Amino acid sequence: MDEEISLWKDSSSQWLNLGPYTFSLVLAVGIAIGGAFFPPTFAGLLLPLAYAVWKYLTVRTRVFELTNERLKITCGVINQHIDEIELYRVKDTQMLRTWWMRLTGLASISLETSDRTLPNLVIPAIRGGSEMREILRKQVEIQRDRKRVREMDFDDAADGGLEDLG
Asked: Please, are residues 156 and 121 in contact by the beta-carbon 8 Å criterion?
């Protein structure tokens, strides 16, 4: 049996936390200004700091790993949750690069799969999105050929094209 090889491993960019970091900074400044008038308020500076650290850790600990057989998603700061998608189950991929992602060299990859637990997965704000998507596409085809899996699309017509005669 072939050995599983890691082809790509990364977590999302901290640019996802720009909003929470900005909120924490504004809150910290507000608490610091309030502390100038009422010194015990300075203890409240721990709240925006703890919030920013928590947001950092949630993004940092969500790791995506692409192997030659599956995509593994590991997440969790305190408790860890690991999910996997077999590559032959990937039906479609889409890459999204908003204006701020293009400025920072990031991309989000959206996957549509036949996996029951993760029918739609978004890998947000990763570096080298185009390259990762191409590696993923090639590995999906290799795994489909290896497992002899083909995808069939069916029309979603509820009545199957039959008229109600009753």
From this structure: no
Residues 6+ apart with CB under 8 A from 62: 11, 12, 73, 74, 75
Phi, psi of 4 (to 5 degrees): -75, 130
Q: By C-alpha distance, which of 133, 126, 112, 135 is closest to 59?
A: 126
Output DSSP code: residue 45.
G
Secondary element (H or E) of residue 100: helix 99-104
Tokens (6 digits) for 62: 């969500």
% of residues, the chain, pLDDT over 90: 79
Tokens 């029951």 correspond to 116
- Domains detected in the chain: 6-147 (2.30.29.30)
Instruction: Phi first, then psi: give them for residue 26, nearest 5 degrees.
Output: -65, -45
Report if pTM > 0.70.
Answer: yes
6-40 tens-digit pLDDT: 999 999 999 999 999 999 999 999 999 988 888 88
